[in-house]
Write a structure and sequence with these properties.
This protein is of the alpha+beta class. It has two helices and nine strands; from the N terminus they run βαβββββαβββ. It has two domains: 51 residues, 2,3-Dihydroxybiphenyl 1,2-Dioxygenase, domain 1 (Roll), CATH 3.10.180; 52 residues, 2,3-Dihydroxybiphenyl 1,2-Dioxygenase, domain 1. Strands 1, 2, 3, 4 and 5 form a five-stranded mixed β-sheet that branches. A four-stranded mixed β-sheet has the order 6-9-8-7, with helices on one face.
Length: 127
């Protein structure tokens, strides 16, 4: 068994798609739109086959995302090396994204950084 895809609702669909394509090497499909409901989505596919569905619909509520809450905590992307973690973290910092931790080696041995990107949702960059 494998996870087929992960989905997340976003307020700014194009901005979210551009982030995953520009910074994390994802490939976007042409998108889907339901003219009756206003629902729109993109599937972002990564080189290893993992897929992320970005979705938008009218009247979404973007509640505060406290880091100590139940639910999904972050999406982690492996970039292959400590140097790549450092480089991508600095690229995202220069692009104006909030680095919430790292780069650092965690207590359980991961080298990572965590960035608040898509409307306060966290992305982890790791080896």
């Amino acid at each position: 068994m494998r996870i087929e895809h992960i989905a997340m609702y976003v307020s700014d669909l194009e901005k979210a798609r551009d982030f995953f394509v520009t910074y994390l090497g994802g490939h976007s499909n042409a998108g889907y739109r339901n003219p009756r409901t206003g629902f729109r989505s993109y599937f972002i596919t990564f080189d290893d086959g993992a897929r992320l569905e970005l979705m938008h619909k009218p009247d979404l509520h973007d509640d505060a995302k406290h880091p100590d809450r139940t639910g999904y905590a972050h999406i982690a992307f492996s970039v292959g090396s400590k140097e790549q973690v450092d480089a991508l973290t600095e690229t995202l910092r220069q692009a104006g994204y909030q680095i919430t931790s790292g780069p650092r080696t965690t207590g359980d041995g991961y080298y990572e950084s965590c960035i608040a990107v898509i409307e306060g949702n966290l992305i982890e960059i790791t080896v």
